[in-house]
Structure formats: C-alpha cells, structure tokens
Amino acid sequence: MDIKYILTYIWYLINLSMQNLEPQQPRGIPTQRIIDGNIVYPHSIPYQVFLNFTGDSNTWLCGGSLITTTYVLTAGRCCFRASSVEIILGAHNISERESTQVYLESSNITIHPDFKMDVAAFVYQYDIAVIYLPESVTLNEVIQTIKLPTTNNTYVNNTGKVGGWGLTDPYNNISYSSILLAQENMIISNEVCSLVYYDLKDYDICMKTSDTLSPCVGDYGSPLVVDDVQVGIVSQGVMFCIPGYPFIYTRVTSLLEWIKQSTDYIDYSEITTSTSIIVTTPTVSTTTNTISTTTNKDDNSAEPVLQFHNLVLVMLLQFI
Q1: Could you give the angle at the alpha carbon of 178 between the alpha carbons of 172 and 180, nearest 5°?
Q2: What is the span of the domain harbouring residue 84?
Q3: Per-position b or e across 42-53, b if 16+ CB within 10 A of its CB
Q4: Is residue 302 part of a domain?
Q5: Most CB atoms within 10 A, among 64, 124, 154, 222?
C-alpha cells in the first residue's frame, strides 16, 4: 500500500483521538457546536417546517420548507422508509403547543425517481422529495413560503443560513433541540469540497462549518437559504457531524424543473407581463414513488466516506 495512504490514515486516527480527549460536557447539555447553533428570534424563519416521520414501526425527525401553500420540500433520505409524516408549521419551541402552530398529517410523499443510497459509499443521490399537504395552508406572519432560485447561480462565496431542531450532541441520540437553532457560513465550490468528499455531483452544493457549528441528525431536509432564496436542502456530512468539515446540500437549481413538475410551484419571474396575466395552475401528479433499497442500515448512521488521503487538505478550508 502507498505510504501516503498509511501516514494520512494514522494522522486521521491521532486527530480523532485528540478530539475524544478534549473535555466533554455532561450528556444532554448541548456542546457549543445546530450542533449548537444560535437560537433564532421566534418565528423569524417562517418557512421552516418540522417533520415527524413514521415507518417500519419507527419514528424519526427531519426539517423541511414550505414552498407553496400545499407543498413542503425536504430530503429524500427522510422519506424513503416513511408511510406517513406529521407536519408542524409556525413553530419555534417544538416541545410546546404554541398558538401559532399548525398541525397536519400526510402520506402523500413524492421522492425523486433517481433517488438512491449508495450502500458501499453511504452517499445519497438526488436527495430530494416533496410532501403534498392535505389542505392548503393559510399564510400569515409566522407561516410563509420560501422562494426558489430563478437563475443558475453557484452561490460560491455567498453566506448561507440553515436552521433546524436537530441533535445538539452527536453522541447523544436524544439531544434534539426543542428551540429552533440556526447557523450561517460560507458556501464553497464543489472543487474545494471534493478535497473532503468523494464523487460530488452537479446537484450537490457545499457550505463550510465552523469549528463549533454543524448540521446534524434531525436537520436533514432543512433549507439552505441565501438572501431569502432557498438554494439547498440539508443532505449529508461526515460521521458524528464533526464541526470543521463542509456539509453537503442538495442543489435546488439543478433539480428545479423536477420540483416544478412535481408540485404547483410557480416561478412568477418567468411570466411575461403584457396587458393582462393569466396564470394556469399546472396539473400535478401526487403519486407516491416507491423507493427500494438493499440495506436495512439505520438512516442516521449512513454518511459519505472521506477520502482519507485528502483529509490533510481540509485544513486549508479554514483559510478560504
């Protein structure tokens, strides 16, 4: 075996051991890592949706975004084992029954037809899905839709924002935040991100994480937003959500046409203004796609494999 691989692997193990030797806070107390983002001002992210999925006698949590009054956008990985989902809109503190909250339940879930999990590499492909709501949501100050991109911008070097109720301690699988947390960081190019992750696709978009902040389990499906436009969907990161490594999101611009075909989303910027405007709602298929997989591994443990021989280069990310 190439000596380069051996030395890099040894460096990785030493680095991981040093992280484990750092002083640990008691279990259940969030470390300063959405692994532990900033508490947002109540209802300042009005498009954020809390999702509680049920399937195979299990339940699991994810995030999503309201893109129309009848559709929620989320990650395919959240949906592929689901038989139904509880949807909560207008929430800030999910542990309380706030007067602003709207509860709905749906089993009408459409996953991208090309979604799959690479069992060997633990990589999610075409990680996107939409949920059809059983009734149209009334918009107000705390429940709003989020705009989707109108141009094929890469958003490199833009500041992105992501929120969620996910784990605040990756080693404690019940440390979900009851309060909506958020973090901001810089979106990086796929070329830079590929120093850490293997085989990135055009439909992937990456954002840096800081030394203390990272999305984690429970945040999957949440929107990545730049200037009030959703550009990504939380998809996957390194095992245990270790801060300091980039996180992969599904790139909305690459799959925008599928979103339009699968929902009633309308990009009003594409409507030509003349004497009058006639908007026709497209016919939407709400057939639920059945996704087959060849693994029974728990979704929370499936993370992409690092290119170990390139791990040293990730140090450069802190200076980009």
Answers
A1: 110
A2: 38-257+286-319
A3: ebebbbbbbbbb
A4: yes
A5: 222
**How many domains does the chain divide into?**
1
Asked whether residue 136 is assigned to any structural domain, the reply reads: yes
Asked if the model's pLDDT at residue 141 lies above 70, the reply is: yes
Structure tokens at 12: 């990785």
CATH number at residue 67: 2.40.10.10
Report yes or no on 25 lying in a domain: no
Q: What angle do CA 24, 13, 207 make, to 5 degrees?
A: 75
Run of H or E residues at 3: helix 3-21
Q: Which of 158, 160, 167 is nearest to 243 (CA)?
A: 167
Neighbouring C-alpha atoms within 13 Å toward the C-beta of 316: 11
Cα–Cα distance measured from residue 265 to residue 116, given in angstroms and rounded to the nearest whole number: 24
Burial class (CB in 10 A: 0-12, 13-18, 19+), 23: exposed
pLDDT tens digits, 224-258? 999 999 999 999 988 778 888 899 999 999 999 99
- DSSP for 141-203, written as a single string: SS----B--SS----TT-EEEEEE--BSSTT-TT-B-SB-EEEEEEEE-HHHHTTTBSS--TT
In a domain, 248, yes or no: yes
Tell me, yes or no, if the pTM score tops 0.90.
no
